[in-house]
Design brief:
Blueprint: H1 12-20, H2 22-35, E1 59-64, E2 69-73, E3 79-80, H3 85-97, H4 99-105, H5 133-140, H6 148-163, H7 171-180, H8 182-193, H9 201-212, E4 215-216, H10 218-229, H11 247-257, H12 263-269, E5 274-276, E6 281-286, E7 290-295, H13 306-319, H14 333-337
The site of 6-diazenyl-5-OXO-L-norleucine has 12 residues, from loops.
Amino acid sequence: MHAESDPDAIDPLIGKMRAAAAPFRRTLQELHRSYAGLFDGAVATYIPELALADPSWFGISVATADGLVFEIGDSGRPFSIQSISKPFVFGMAIQDHGRDQVLRRVGVEPTGEAFNSIVLDEATNRPFNPMVNAGAIATTDLIEGADAGERFKRLLAMFRRFTGRDIHIDNAVFLSERITGHRNRAIAHLMRNFGMVGDRFEESLELYFQQCSILVTCRDLAIMGATLANGGQNPLTGETALEPQYVKDVLSIMLSCGMYDFAGEWAYRTGLPAKSGVSGGIVAVVPGVAGIGVYSPLLDPKGNSVRGIRVCQDLSRKFGLHAFEARFSGPSFHDECHPPRRGT
Ligand code: DON
């Protein structure tokens, strides 16, 4: 069901604000129309369950740091979060242990390598950063809990604070990845050899597969991004999902490493902290302003959503969202989302 055609799906307050923010909705409609016919790329198949996605699925959502949510297309269609989970788990690990302890297990250096590269830093034996699979597994290994169940419940509770709603895992995706996850098992054993993961690393690998199988929508991604844009506080619920002092750790890693071996071009052209996932999601953050969520399962050779990249690049260019934009003279993202009320 497209959110646009289902007024009951939209909170009455947002419904009223939508009427006031027509220009921005039109912008999203135009973007969706521009790329709905783009079928470059391929759906991921190395996790068999992901191959079931329909290449035409395409949703866009933007959530502002003060709680407005705009959405178009398949914005309510659930998909597994996959690697988009990684920056949020990184933030949780730092909150659990502090920066110094986490950085003993994982670096913060972009590798220019693919997300599944089996590469450790020769000088420290650490995985290079928490966005590649090796670094993510090492980060998940740091999630505290008395047993596997408590660790899983803590992790899910963190994601629920970011999305502002009850979420669950897709068990079919979890089982599909657990059965085929040989490369990640090899990475985990290599890191155990170098002490980058602890004795419970096999339990942590299961937890990593579970975190990647969490079901979200691109509306959820936009709200998660808006929560980071809002200093770690969910703008819809007011709940703190991440302590403010750790938000910069997450955003800086997303900007430098979030798009893997496309991170350099992404930083140059889009200039926003972002994270992609092999299901076809992308979350991007405009610090202090908004979160952007895009979902479309067609991926480029580097594992990033083709339509997702185009949408984020267009929004960045149209509204001057690039982190290093100088004195942008075009339309303001904030003003288009919050047009003056009639008569003011
Ligand atoms: O571990 C894996 O390979 C997947 N669960 C996640 C990889 C992923 O999402 C890469 N992002 N583009």
